[in-house]
Structure formats: structure tokens, C-alpha cells
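Quick log. Single chain, no ligands specified.
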Amino acid sequence: MRGALRAALAACLLMMMPGLLPAQASARRGVWLGLGLGHGSAQLTCAICAGGRDGGLSGFVRCGVALSPRLLIGAEVLGWRRHEGGGDYTLTSAQGLLVLYPWRTRALHFSTGAGLARYTAQDTDNEISTQAFAMQVGAGWDVPVRRGISVTPFVNFVATTGADVKVNSTASSLSANSSLIQFGLGVTLH
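-> predicted structure:
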């Protein structure tokens, strides 16, 4: 947990340093690719769910095209996983994504997306799962390391609401909400 806290602090410090390095806006053309890995904190809330946020490994893969040096469009697949007490917990999502750089020459960017998310909790006997429409917001800071390559501290929030709960693939009368907060370090290729 201390390592995750240190990574989050380092990411926040980098994102708060305006003018650290220019974002090389001219490099944001054509196809782009992003990979990120870090810590995630997921939660499933419903009438029978044992509440609380659970930490685990989290990451994403995203790609798309630059419509302009300030606006990127693409798709993202993200995931979170935790193994605890004989149970496996996962949250996955596939979404369309918009990435906005408010300033042409700055590295700060904001992202938003929409798509589907699935939360699964299973042990050797049972599986509880949900799937629903998901929305995402996030932010990051591109720190150039070479032309067209940036290290990117990031933070994202993904949430669903009103998902039907299935128990062992059988629909129940329950409804659930899931959410994921993820932060970490990525690599962006422009």
C-alpha cells in the first residue's frame, strides 16, 4: 500500500507542475497508443454486497487517432483484478474515448469515455456478476522522454449504475453499482 501511495503522490506532483516540459503538441498527429499500469480501487454496491473498496492491480490499453493536436479519439480497454481469501474479483471495461488537451503546448489532458463495464466476484462455488453502461473521466500529464514518446502519470474514475446482478449466470432481482478509481503510470506513443 505504501508503494501505491508513493506512486499516487509522485503522479499528483508531476501533474501539478505547469510547464515541466512542453507536450510536443506537434507530435500529436495520426495514430496514438497508450498503455498504463498502476493501482486500482474498485467497489460493488448492492443490497447483499459486502461494501468497501478493494485495492488491486489495474491497467489499460488505449489507441486511436488525433483529430487535431488538442483532440484525440479512440477506444480503451481497462481492467482491475484482486485475489483475496480464495476469491477472484475483476472489473473490466471497453469504452469509446475522447482525450482533450486544453492547451496546445501543455502536457495536461483530460479524458472521458462511455461503454460497457463488467464486475465479477467468484470463488470455487459461486459467481456474482454485473454488466452495465459505464462512463469514465480522467486526467493525465504527458512527460516527453523522446520525440513521440511520453511517460504519463494518470488518474481515472469509471462508474456504472443500475446493473442487473447475476448469481451463477442466473438473473436476480438485485441491482448494483460498480466503480473503479485507478492511478498509475503509462506510456503514450504519438
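The CA atoms of residues 106 and 136 lie 22 Å apart.
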